[in-house]
Write a structure and sequence with these properties.
Helices cover 42% and strands 21% of the residues. The chain is an alpha/beta fold. It has three domains: 185 residues, Alpha-Beta Plaits; 116 residues, PAS domain (Beta-Lactamase); 245 residues, EAL domain (TIM Barrel, Alpha-Beta Barrel).
């Protein structure tokens, strides 16, 4: 797997959780306050479900904490007789390790602390017999604390290793979904009045695109780096787990701090992730549910945190949302609609509309712009800007556009005239130029459509961060004989450079910009500059949304050669286009 250029990853034992930071035995802190007791319980519950012997030490090698597993493995007392006994005394008095082995453990700790953890977890192996040994690891925790993990290596058949594997995510070293759920359930079962633990669900935004563009190995490396950042930044009253895929969960003992924690988590994604020589930029969304206001059980908290997460994504991502009962119904309705979208194609609810394109000077019909439409069986027409965003969030946008490509080529090949079709590519399709080339080739071959009648539009926003893939994709498409156009001028003046950098055949001025021509001088100047540059480069131009004579005139005045909109004709289905072409002799 590609190696990230960052600090070494979690140690694989699930010991990286800052829930352990500055944690000491309850026997050593009999008069801890409510907040401190909540942190102690959270750390204790996290450790109970990891069958690993753990001890927490300071720079002076004094013990601050050990769990029951450590007491059992090393013959340590369950209660501290001293406030902070020296590690050397505890190991010596336990008698499980020989004096030379105790000395090796102390040397390990001295060396690891002296290096301040710069080399990641240090470890050694202590033999207990022919088939038994103890692996000891030292892991820096921050705040002048280090955690010692002791794992007994026994012959096959010992159940502890199996339980460890069942509780730890092997990729990140964090606890897994089972560990998170059991820790949450136990914490709530012993939750005292006045304490309000909270669940935070963290989901990486559009992480599928990382896997598509760079491969699963790079995606796994990024997930490991995300886990590292979580471990470094969250505080002592929090544990983290990987719940599966690109989803993480956090449990915080004091829900009053949940919003601040969510803000810090979002800040972790302010800088890119480096994997080998590749910079990966990511964002995340967070959903929060607090006990007991948002649920009296572990299942209810997880469900409502998930609803809040969905609300954060619906709000534009890169943000967090607290569960709100009033907004829950909207989130559930949106999720239901997303589920309906997944089966809409198989139910025949997705179809293509064709908007006529006409020569601005002669009014002759030159082609059709392809639009994906969804007519829901119960709800009727669903706005494109609603369901296309859903398709992108759910990861099916690429499949939807591939279907549209095949269907549009098939429809156009059956028309009685040789008018062209123009349809947009999804940004995700550009992540895999070879697949895009194969799909376009398949659509052209299966339909019999000549390549010169197919135009594929690329958004300027989709090019950002994909310059290499876009150049390769355009080279493939032009090699097949298809035409390519640039759209998305609303992204700003910077899009002009794409006209020079890539071999486009046409520039498209989208509807929002055409509508602004009547009132926004800056937009008018930008459109004029783009069309002028395109003309100088021998590139055509198309104005979408030219619905009125005034807008059509303004677009023509700026140099647009082709118009699309209500003034050019209503959008039609495939059969309607055939009737138009046959009945009017393709005016």
């Amino acid at each position: 797997m590609p190696q990230p250029r960052m600090l070494p990853g979690p140690d694989g034992w699930g010991l990286g959780s800052p829930a352990l930071q500055a944690t000491r035995s309850t026997q050593a802190r009999p008069r801890a306050g409510t907040g401190q007791q909540a942190r102690i319980r959270l750390a204790g519950k996290a450790l109970e479900h990891l069958p690993i012997a753990v001890a927490v030490i300071d720079r002076g090698l004094n013990l601050h904490y050990w769990n029951v597993q450590a007491a059992t493995l090393l013959n340590l007392p369950l209660s501290m007789r001293d406030d902070m006994p020296p590690l050397a005394h505890a190991l010596r008095d336990g008698g499980r390790l020989r004096p030379r082995q105790v000395a090796r453990v102390l040397t390990l700790c001295d060396a690891g602390i002296e290096g301040e953890g710069q080399g990641g977890p240090s470890w050694l192996r202590l033999a207990l017999g022919r088939q038994h040994s103890i692996h000891v690891k030292l892991h820096p925790m921050g705040q002048d604390r280090w955690v010692l993990g002791f794992e007994e290596q026994a012959p096959l058949g010992i159940a502890g290793a199996d339980r460890h594997d069942a509780m730890v995510d092997p990729l990140t070293g964090l606890g897994n979904r089972r560990h998170f759920a059991e820790t949450l359930a136990d914490l709530l079962a012993e939750c005292e009045p006045g304490t309000h633990p909270a669940v935070l669900l963290v989901d990486l935004d559009r992480f599928r695109a990382v896997n598509n563009a760079h491969g699963m190995a790079v995606g796994d490396a990024v997930l490991a780096l995300v886990a590292q950042r979580l471990n470094r930044e969250i505080r002592e009253d929090t544990i983290a787990a990987r719940l599966g895929g690109d989803s993480f969960g956090l449990l915080i003992a004091n829900g009053e701090h949940a919003g601040a924690l969510a803000t810090r988590i979002l800040g972790l994604f302010g800088s890119p992730f480096m994997v080998e020589d590749t910079l990966i930029r990511l964002s995340a969304s967070v959903g929060i549910a607090v006990y007991p206001a948002h649920g009296g059980s572990a299942d209810a908290l997880l469900q409502h945190a998930d609803v809040a997460l969905y609300a954060a994504k619906a709000a534009g991502r890169q943000t967090w949302r607290m569960y709100d009962a009033g907004a829950a119904s909207q989130a559930i309705a949106r999720r239901t609609l997303e589920a309906d979208l997944r089966v809409a194609l198989s139910l025949g609810e997705i179809w293509l509309a064709y908007e006529p394109q006409r020569d601005a000077a002669t009014r002759a019909l030159t082609g059709f712009g392809v639009q994906i439409r969804w007519t829901h069986a119960a709800r009727g027409p669903i706005p494109a800007d609603t369901f296309l965003v859903m398709a992108q969030d759910s990861g099916c946008i690429g499949a939807l556009h591939e279907w549209a490509l095949t269907a549009a080529c098939t429809d156009a090949a059956r028309w009685p005239c040789d008018r062209s079709i123009s349809l947009r590519l999804a940004a995700e399709q550009l992540d895999d130029p070879d697949r895009l080339k194969a799909k376009v080739s398949e659509a052209l071959t299966a339909s019999g459509l000549t390549p010169d009648r197919l135009e594929l539009a690329v958004s300027a926003n989709a090019i950002l961060g994909r310059e290499g893939q876009v150049a390769e994709a355009l080279r493939h498409l032009r090699g097949l004989g298809a035409r390519v156009s640039l759209t998305g001028l609303a992204a700003g003046w910077g899009t002009m450079r794409h006209l020079r950098a890539h071999p486009f055949d046409r520039v498209t001025v989208e509807s929002a910009l055409v509508a602004a021509l009547a009132s926004d001088p800056e937009t008018t100047a930008m459109v004029r500059a783009a069309i002028g540059l395109a003309s100088d480069l021998g590139i055509g131009s198309l104005a979408e949304g030219a619905d009125t004579a005034d807008l059509a005139y303004r677009a023509m005045e700026l140099g647009c050669r082709t118009l699309q909109g209500a003034l050019s004709g209503d959008a039609l289905d495939a059969a309607g286009v055939s009737d138009l072409l046959r009945g009017s002799a393709a005016p």
